[in-house]
């Protein structure tokens, strides 16, 4: 089957502390836990999948005792959400209370949104812009 606009997307990232990462994305950002799993065999990890019910994407965080790779976030490794309007103060406060740290994501994103580092150092950008693929 070819890739289409209906193709589902999973963004997977390792996490040193799944509970802290889940708190950031669920309690702070407002994503829901769609699935939680524990290792069922060799080479498997604890994981949590977060997203919005019915959406064509989700964020998978994996870690636990079997984790063999450390998270390696880079400054340009961004998870951008286009909000089509101002970022509400309550959302900013919630992300900070849930373990997020406000950071700069460079002049472009600093102009068009607010960036946070999650507990593993990956960057989330809440963009005030509207998504357009034009």
TrEMBL record:
Matches recorded under SUPFAM superfamilies: Glyoxalase/Bleomycin resistance protein/Dihydroxybiphenyl dioxygenase (SSF54593)
Limits of the VOC domain: 5-129
Gene3D superfamilies documented for this protein: 2,3-Dihydroxybiphenyl 1,2-Dioxygenase, domain 1
Residue ranges that the Swiss-Prot or TrEMBL entry lists as coiled coil: none
Top-level taxon of the source organism: Bacteria
Pfam family, one: YycE-like_C
PROSITE patterns: VOC
Protein name, as recorded: Glyoxalase-like domain-containing protein
Gene source species: Micromonospora humi
